[in-house]
């Protein structure tokens, strides 16, 4: 039964992600939100490949185990660059795209190096697999911090584009929930039967929120700055 629930969530996630890409293509906003569309397309392909490998080799097979964790690491990196794409959108009027790219690469390299150091000190036998998991966890925490910094920039710059605000807030909730899940999983590993449901649920909620942003919020929609934060007089 738990496996069936997870499969249903994965199918819903894939459909939502694919629909966002289709809507973006139809409305001509693929280039503006390129990193989001690339991430969603890659995530949809990965979900179908996971199901294919699972049906061929089984849940406990080495093929599924390695593909799941390695693909998850690649998608986490893709989500990290998606966040940087939102940074570029918020700061586009300041012409800071080049500096953001350099910052993105340096921070990613720093996170990868830190993860490598942690794994080496732990003396784990499956070093590369452990490294992949460790880097994914660290990128979620880095993404959480960067998303809150981006939200601060949204308030400071008085960003009013409703769709951009929806995308940023959704990603902030997603990173927060995933970071909390990793922390609780490390504290209470005996509740593994609970934690295994969290990733597919969150994986479905993020594209659901983004689907709302692309389906129902017009590109030119604006929100009053006073509704985002109270500005002291």
Give an overview in words.
The protein is an all-alpha fold and 233 residues long. It has one domain (8-218). Helices cover 79% and strands 0% of the residues. The chain contains 8 helices and no strands. The chain has helices at 2-27, 34-57, 62-90, 97-122, 127-156, 162-187, 192-195, 198-216. Helix 4 (97-122) packs antiparallel against helix 5 (127-156). The longest helix is centred in the middle third of the chain and has 30 residues, at 127-156. The mean pLDDT is 82.
What is the topological layout?
Elements: H1 2-27, H2 34-57, H3 62-90, H4 97-122, H5 127-156, H6 162-187, H7 192-195, H8 198-216
Helix pairs in contact: 1-2, 1-8, 2-3, 3-4, 3-5, 3-6, 4-5, 5-6, 6-8
Instruction: Supply the number of structural domains.
Output: 1
Radius of gyration: 19 Å
Report mean pLDDT, rounded to a whole number: 82
- Beta strands, count: 0
Structural class: mainly alpha
For this entry, what is the oligomeric state of its chains?
Answer: single chain
Note poorly predicted spans.
none
Helix segment count? 8
Helix content: over 70%
Main beta-sheet strand count, sense and barrel state: none
Strand content: under 5%
Shape: globular
- Distance between termini? 56 Å
Output the helix-strand order: HHHHHHHH
């Amino acid at each position: 039964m738990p496996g069936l629930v997870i499969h249903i969530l994965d199918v819903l996630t894939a459909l939502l992600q694919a629909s966002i890409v289709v809507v973006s293509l139809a409305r001509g906003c693929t280039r503006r939100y390129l990193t989001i569309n690339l991430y969603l397309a890659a995530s949809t392909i990965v979900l179908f490949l996971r199901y294919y490998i699972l049906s061929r080799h089984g849940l406990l097979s080495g093929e599924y185990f390695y593909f799941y964790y390695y693909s998850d690491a690649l998608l986490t990196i893709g989500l990290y660059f998606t966040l940087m794409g939102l940074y570029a959108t918020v700061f586009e009027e300041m012409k800071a795209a080049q500096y953001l790219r350099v910052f993105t690469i340096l921070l990613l390299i720093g996170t990868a190096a830190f993860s490598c150091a942690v794994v080496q000190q732990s003396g784990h036998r499956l070093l590369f697999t452990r490294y992949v998991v460790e880097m994914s966890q660290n990128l979620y925490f880095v993404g959480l911090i960067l998303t809150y910094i981006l939200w601060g920039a949204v308030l400071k710059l008085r960003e009013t584009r409703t769709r951009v605000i929806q995308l940023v807030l959704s990603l902030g909730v997603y990173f927060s929930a995933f970071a909390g899940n990793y922390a609780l999983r490390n504290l209470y590993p005996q509740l593994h039967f609970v934690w295994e449901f969290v990733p597919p649920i969150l994986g479905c909620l993020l594209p659901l929120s983004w689907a709302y942003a692309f389906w129902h919020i017009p590109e030119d929609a604006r929100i009053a700055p006073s509704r985002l934060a109270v500005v002291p007089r």
